[in-house]
Amino acid sequence: MVTVRAPATSANLGSGYDVFGAALGRPADVVRVEKADRTTIDVTGVGSQYIPEDPEKNTVGAVAEALEAPAHIEIDKGVRPASGLGSSAASAAAAAVGLNELYGRGLTREELVPIAAEGEAVVSGAAHADNVAPSIMGGFTIARHDGVTSVDASIPLVTCLPEVVISTRDARKVVPETASMTDVVEVVGNASTLAVGMARDDPALVGRGMEDAIVTPARAELITGYAAVRTAALEAGATGVTISGAGPAIIAACRESDRRTIASAMIDAFAEVDVEARAYQTRIGGGATVFE
After folding, report:
1. Same fold for the pair 2-151+285-291 and 156-283
2. Out of 59, 168, 216, 242, which one is annotated catalytic?
């Protein structure tokens, strides 16, 4: 048996739609894989009652098929489904790393990314790597069609998760099909600023680079209280605030000393609109970890 811990992730980070991703220190999924004649799946943990155990409908089933590695797979969910924190990606990433180890496939972490992305397609309808890449490789990642670039970073973060459910499919439906050249130029500049900030471990640059005038405003309409929570986080010291992935989680970049204050401010702002929420004081961290 091989056991893998794969972290939650935040995709997009505002200006990097379908490209940027970051591994979070917490929460995480733990997946155990054991060789078997056919793939079977057991799911426990947060939100497990909503996750299908049919291998044809679960992300890890698709990963096992792609690797030709049938197994009994136990998933202990620490990342809530439909949270915007890469729940399905964490399971897929852990399964890919674990099955690669269990069957001795010898694939590199980067080579496992597109395989795990195939698992993501079961949930979102498309094989996007912006969540699975950081969950496997760690740090800040830039996912392109021809591969993944990763950067070690340790930016302090607060992720605030309200008791609201938004599916990835629904969040993709509101993404604008066109954008003005002015907005495109602005987003390119912001994305470049964010990438430099990650390379320098500079929370101020990362926060400035989170600004996005195209996708985020459309998705913000799906999250009750988003504007108020964003304002509260910025007033409490956040250097930048945006939607994590498809939402509803909201992520704030900050300095270490401000995390506790920002977390409280975001929870209180959600409470003002009668939405319960919890906050994770975390940072960009490492990728999937194997325990044998």
Report:
1. no
2. 168
- Closest to 75 in 3D by CA, of 109, 47, 110, 36: 47
Q: Clarify whether 168 is annotated catalytic.
A: yes
pLDDT in tens, 206-225: 999 999 999 999 999 999 99
19-28 residue pLDDT tens: 999 999 999 9
Question: Fold for domain 2-151+285-291?
Answer: Ribosomal Protein S5; domain 2 (3.30.230)
Spot the catalytic one: 74, 118, 120, 211. 120
If one looks up domain 156-283 in CATH, what number appears? 3.30.70.890
Residue 39 is among the residues annotated as catalytic for this protein: no
Q: Return the domain boundaries, the chain.
A: 2-151+285-291, 156-283
Closest-CA residue to 260 (of 184, 158, 163): 158
Is 83 annotated as belonging to a binding site? yes
Distance of alpha carbon 114 from alpha carbon 110, whole angstroms:
8
Residue 284 pairs in a beta bridge with: 24
pLDDT averaged over every residue in the chain: 94
Q: Is 85 known to sit in a ligand binding site?
A: yes
Is 87 labeled as ligand-binding? yes
Show the tokens assigned to 8: 């939650």
Q: Is 107 annotated as a binding residue?
A: no
Whether pTM exceeds 0.90: yes
